[in-house]
């Protein structure tokens, strides 16, 4: 796509995008993390900015990629920090896109000093506490009237299992989360079974379902923003 062919359809819009994975500390040197690269969220931020949006990128841990130019970047570490930043910046935003891999659980306690071997209190397990769901919180805030007119987009990586295929799980997640759009990536070995070359779907709360063909993260970002446009207030 030529640069001059990029639509400027998001001019004047304010969009909050999360990217990367959160890290949940257990002591000053250790954490529980995940394999999110941050690439998809960064691609969304870049393309949204190219299309004219004022973008706030709330970034967790990434593989060391450079944030796009012309984007306000806020770096966070934990799910709690990400939630606080999202809640703050979502106010008055036209859209929030939760591309980040938010840790579902954090170590219940964080040791102030490094946990040492042979110290007599070596842990044989790590108690975990569930993190709050940032996306569900946004949906709830909108229902409660604290967040008006903000379009809320979720991401999900799904595999099929013995109970249901990817799409069935994804539809249930869209219902459960109550967001306006859910970007579904089919992951895992079973996927060729269910999806014939498609890497995922874009599910709308209005029942629309669009297959997403395999392509670059920038292309996927464009598809997501294309679907977002008509939902903006
Ligand atoms: N998400 C969030 N806060 C969390 C967990 C997830 O905002 N504590 C967001 C993610 O950023 C993503 C969406 O919710 O946009 C779906 O995440 P996913 O992990 O697929 O959903 P979960 O509800 O955590 O379900 P699962 O048990 O499948 O992990
Ligand atoms: Ca999760």
UniProtKB/TrEMBL annotation:
<comment type="similarity">
    <text>In the N-terminal section; belongs to the HFCD (homo-oligomeric flavin containing Cys decarboxylase) superfamily.</text>
</comment>
<dbReference type="GO" id="GO:0015941">
    <property type="term" value="P:pantothenate catabolic process"/>
</dbReference>
<keyword id="KW-0456">Lyase</keyword>
<comment type="function">
    <text>Catalyzes two steps in the biosynthesis of coenzyme A. In the first step cysteine is conjugated to 4'-phosphopantothenate to form 4-phosphopantothenoylcysteine, in the latter compound is decarboxylated to form 4'-phosphopantotheine.</text>
</comment>
<keyword id="KW-0288">FMN</keyword>
<comment type="pathway">
    <text>Cofactor biosynthesis; coenzyme A biosynthesis; CoA from (R)-pantothenate: step 2/5.</text>
</comment>
<dbReference type="GO" id="GO:0015937">
    <property type="term" value="P:coenzyme A biosynthetic process"/>
</dbReference>
<keyword id="KW-0460">Magnesium</keyword>
<comment type="similarity">
    <text>In the C-terminal section; belongs to the PPC synthetase family.</text>
</comment>
<keyword id="KW-0479">Metal-binding</keyword>
<dbReference type="GO" id="GO:0004632">
    <property type="term" value="F:phosphopantothenate--cysteine ligase activity"/>
</dbReference>
<comment type="pathway">
    <text>Cofactor biosynthesis; coenzyme A biosynthesis; CoA from (R)-pantothenate: step 3/5.</text>
</comment>
<dbReference type="GO" id="GO:0010181">
    <property type="term" value="F:FMN binding"/>
</dbReference>
<feature type="binding site">
    <location>
        <position position="173"/>
    </location>
    <ligand>
        <name>CTP</name>
    </ligand>
</feature>
<dbReference type="GO" id="GO:0004633">
    <property type="term" value="F:phosphopantothenoylcysteine decarboxylase activity"/>
</dbReference>
<feature type="region of interest" description="Phosphopantothenate--cysteine ligase">
    <location>
        <begin position="15"/>
        <end position="233"/>
    </location>
</feature>
<comment type="function">
    <text>Catalyzes two sequential steps in the biosynthesis of coenzyme A. In the first step cysteine is conjugated to 4'-phosphopantothenate to form 4-phosphopantothenoylcysteine. In the second step the latter compound is decarboxylated to form 4'-phosphopantotheine.</text>
</comment>
<keyword id="KW-0285">Flavoprotein</keyword>
<keyword id="KW-0436">Ligase</keyword>
<feature type="binding site">
    <location>
        <position position="177"/>
    </location>
    <ligand>
        <name>CTP</name>
    </ligand>
</feature>
<dbReference type="GO" id="GO:0046872">
    <property type="term" value="F:metal ion binding"/>
</dbReference>
<protein>
    <recommendedName>
        <fullName>Coenzyme A biosynthesis bifunctional protein CoaBC</fullName>
        <ecNumber>4.1.1.36</ecNumber>
        <ecNumber>6.3.2.5</ecNumber>
    </recommendedName>
</protein>
<feature type="binding site">
    <location>
        <position position="155"/>
    </location>
    <ligand>
        <name>CTP</name>
    </ligand>
</feature>
<keyword id="KW-0511">Multifunctional enzyme</keyword>
<feature type="domain" description="DNA/pantothenate metabolism flavoprotein C-terminal">
    <location>
        <begin position="10"/>
        <end position="228"/>
    </location>
</feature>
<feature type="binding site">
    <location>
        <position position="114"/>
    </location>
    <ligand>
        <name>CTP</name>
    </ligand>
</feature>
<keyword id="KW-0210">Decarboxylase</keyword>
<dbReference type="GO" id="GO:0071513">
    <property type="term" value="C:phosphopantothenoylcysteine decarboxylase complex"/>
</dbReference>
<feature type="binding site">
    <location>
        <position position="104"/>
    </location>
    <ligand>
        <name>CTP</name>
    </ligand>
</feature>
